[in-house]
């Protein structure tokens, strides 16, 4: 500003003083640091001396530049840092800004929000999984409601497999006991002997069904076939109570259908024992059977030696006689029929000894009585416990009074004690004997 005032004053100097004043002016202009002021000064003095003086500058430029530099120095501004924009101050009419929360409170709020989200997710997962597991757990009820017949077969098959494998484990344990014990199978009780005799047959019978149902793709077609013929492919583990009663009656009728053939074989070989001391006594027994009565256990024990050798021994019997005995006892057909008869006779004989050791026939349960009569050739349908106990006592008395050489007498006991029994006769012919 001071420089501008000087320029204005020099504008009124006379023409003859121009060189001296010009040198002074150039000296002053060369000492100025601002290029803008230098250009301004040279432009003003280039004008004619007759031109009017410019108006006085009202803004104090140096003061402004100095004030700006002071502000920059006080704020410590660095050219390498970005310039922060000044924040707009809210007007007095607007609401006051909310107070700032500390970092701990913000972190606490974030943790609370996160915990709520996690809890909500966990609750949702628990709900979904609970509903899913309840649905799976009750899925059999849904299937049973929509497919009652199929679910009934499924339940029967599932329970049968469970019972079958349970009996198979027991059988393996019993087999180890029989093999490791010094007494052999004589160390087993009645129930263990029954399982030891029956389980190998059941395993051979049900093996094709279990293998076929477990095969991929084949099982879908084999499963209905198995249940369409349960008597042929399955065992008693998979049968319903109604099927067990029905199939037991069926097998009993098939077995009793061989009674007459076995009785005819005994009659046919009677003449071959004419030289035996017990020939007449045994002929009397066969006559009683033909007339509709049974001999007493004492009479059978008296003639036991006639079965030790001759045509009634295990090796002396004809093939037809052996085949009829195999069918009479319900044994599976095989090449070694005499061996099967021998094994079956001794197993049942050991069962009779176990019954005696365990207190006698009267200690058996009703189910055990029925199975014992069925195994020995007497149809238990319609019989009360007293009738079954009486018949089994006669059987056990003869069985425990004979030795190994009298094995064929044991094999013929179903004929000698049950040929004319009303239940057996009714099963074969549909009516009681007259």
Key structural traits:
elongated; mainly alpha; 434 residues; 21 helices
Would you write up a description of this structure?
Helix content is 65%, strand content 0%. It has helices at 2-10, 18-30, 35-45, 61-75, 103-137, 139-146, 148-180, 190-214, 218-228, 230-233, 241-256, 259-268, 279-291, 297-302, 319-328, 337-357, 366-375, 385-399, 407-411, 413-418, 422-429. The radius of gyration is 59 Å and the shape is elongated.
Q: What is the succession of H and E elements?
A: HHHHHHHHHHHHHHHHHHHHH
Gyration radius from CA atoms, angstroms? 59 Å
Strand content: under 5%
Q: What distance lies between the first and last C-alpha atoms, to the nearest angstrom?
A: 159 Å
Q: Tally of extended strands?
A: 0
Oligomer: single chain
Helix and strand composition category:
mainly alpha
Low-confidence stretches: 1-19, 32-59, 71-87, 89-94
The DSSP helix count reads: 21
Largest sheet: none
Shape: elongated
Helix content bin: 55-70%
Mean pLDDT: 77
Question: What's a concise summary of this model?
Answer:
This protein is mainly α and 434 residues long. Helices cover 65% and strands 0% of the residues.
